[in-house]
């Protein structure tokens, strides 16, 4: 099983640096009607513009204030929703469906909270059961030795990249374990809306920062995580 925690390795080093700097310039206000490319007062997925703004607006109370998401870069089918979901898994369980780019939190009554996600790219996907072994807010990111060998420019972060908006792990991280051992896989907060609905990572799963905070606050340590085959 591949055990790398390199985020978005699919892009070149130059593109990655550009993306990190671009995060600081994400829109700081709620997405407008024109930005969403809509006519009327509801999105194509049935959510009102007010609901979208409430879900993905700025979060100024964070240690590193989070800007609003540019929702013009996200397909409406990946907006956070409550949906019907038939499963034998207990409420609270997290189910990752990499083939559909969704993460589900199982709720009572045959329902689930569904989030759009980015997932592992071809050759880095995995499936199976895990659990949340620990949780982190604004975690330090340390590139694995395997990544540093492939991409020497990552060596400057060998002792860790401090938390912040440019940190690949973002505002919140759920660290996944199996049999008492850290897998190096995570569910993390992404500041890159254009990545939702794509396979770009080395097996980790990213949610928009606002969605990740929502999931994180409802997920205790030891929560079961099921990763379905792609």
Automatic annotation (TrEMBL):
Domain L,D-TPase catalytic positions: 92-228
InterPro entries, per database record: LD-transpeptidase (IPR050979), LD_TPept_cat_dom (IPR005490), TAT_signal (IPR006311), Transpep_catalytic_dom (IPR038063)
Pathway info: Cell wall biogenesis; peptidoglycan biosynthesis
Similarity section: Belongs to the YkuD family.
GO CC term (a single one): extracellular region
A single BP term in Gene Ontology: regulation of cell shape
Name the record gives this protein: L,D-TPase catalytic domain-containing protein
Native source species: Methylobacterium platani
Top-level taxon in the UniProt lineage: Bacteria
Presence of the UniProt keyword Cell wall biogenesis/degradation in the record: yes
């Amino acid at each position: 099983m591949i055990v790398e925690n390199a985020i978005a390795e699919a892009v070149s080093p130059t593109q990655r640096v550009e993306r990190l700097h671009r995060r600081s310039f994400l829109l700081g206000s709620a997405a407008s009607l024109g930005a969403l490319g809509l006519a009327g007062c509801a999105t194509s997925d049935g959510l009102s513009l007010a609901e979208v703004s409430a879900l993905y607006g700025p979060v100024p109370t964070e240690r590193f204030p989070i800007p609003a998401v540019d929702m013009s870069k996200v397909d409406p089918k990946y907006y956070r929703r409550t949906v019907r979901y038939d499963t034998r898994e207990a409420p609270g369980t997290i189910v990752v469906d990499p083939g559909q780019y969704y993460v589900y939190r199982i709720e009572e009554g045959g329902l689930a909270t569904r989030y759009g996600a980015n997932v592992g790219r071809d050759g880095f996907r995995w499936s199976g059961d895990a659990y949340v072994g620990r949780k982190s807010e604004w975690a330090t990111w340390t590139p694995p030795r395997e990544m540093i060998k492939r991409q020497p420019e990552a060596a400057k972060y060998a002792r860790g990249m401090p938390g912040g908006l440019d940190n690949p792990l973002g505002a919140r991280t759920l660290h996944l374990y199996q049999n008492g051992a850290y897998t190096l896989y995570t569910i993390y907060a992404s500041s890159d809306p254009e990545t939702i609905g794509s396979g770009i990572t080395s097996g980790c799963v990213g949610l928009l920062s606002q969605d990740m905070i929502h999931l994180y606050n409802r997920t205790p340590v030891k929560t079961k995580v099921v990763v379905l085959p792609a």
